[in-house]
Write a structure and sequence with these properties.
transmembrane helix; membrane; about 65% helix
Length: about 200
């Protein structure tokens, strides 16, 4: 499958995740252990790094939502707010796992090749796809080499002069299987939206 197709399917899965709720969201969270131990450990690291975001999200949604109080008391969150907070936290966990699985299963060369193919049409709008690709690479490098919070002094050190790097992108056109995979995912998402509306 073409790297661009994998990125498009991955992006559509993110759209699908943002529309999961209730039993479907719970079922998706229960499937997470099937992603494997390394992916779960990496996802846990990302989750721990975003722990304050999770806590803030929970407090704002649980105590900021209108509805019936969860218990009798002045500081009780609303039941609707709790449900909303847990839904958004569950979706965020799934997104972090999706990012983890993408990075684990897609080599950097494929990721850059797929992103280049997807950004290429933006040249007609005056945007430089190559520059966007270099920025994506810098962000990925920064994420991988970022020191832990307790090692913040490393950020003050003068970085070593890095030698110039060269990347060769192997580009090929999308095949029938690629278009079929994208169509199946789009139809599935549209069917889910239709079922939710009905």
């Amino acid at each position: 499958m073409h790297p661009s197709t994998r990125l498009v399917v991955w992006f559509l899965m993110l759209v699908l995740i943002q529309n999961l709720e209730g039993s479907l969201l719970a079922a998706a969270l229960l499937v997470l252990p099937l992603c494997g131990g390394p992916a779960l450990r990496r996802c846990w690291q990302l989750t721990w790094g975003a722990r304050w975001l999770f806590l803030s999200l929970f407090v704002i949604l649980a105590w900021g939502g209108a509805g019936d109080p969860a218990w009798n008391g002045a500081m009780a969150p609303s039941l609707e707010g709790l449900a909303d907070a847990l839904t958004h936290i569950g979706r965020l966990l799934l997104v972090l796992m999706a990012v983890t699985v993408l990075r684990a299963r897609m080599p950097l060369a494929d990721l850059l090749s797929g992103a280049h193919r997807l950004l290429e049409p933006l040249r007609r709008c005056g945007l430089d796809a190559d520059r966007g690709l270099v920025r994506l690479l810098l962000v990925l490098r920064y994420m991988e080499t970022m020191p832990r919070a307790r090692d913040w002094r490393l950020l003050l050190e003068v970085p070593e002069q890095a030698a110039g790097e060269m990347f060769e992108l192997a580009d090929r056109p999308l095949g029938r299987r690629d278009y079929l995979a994208i169509t199946v995912v789009v139809v599935s998402i549209l069917a889910l939206f239709y079922l939710r509306q009905g």
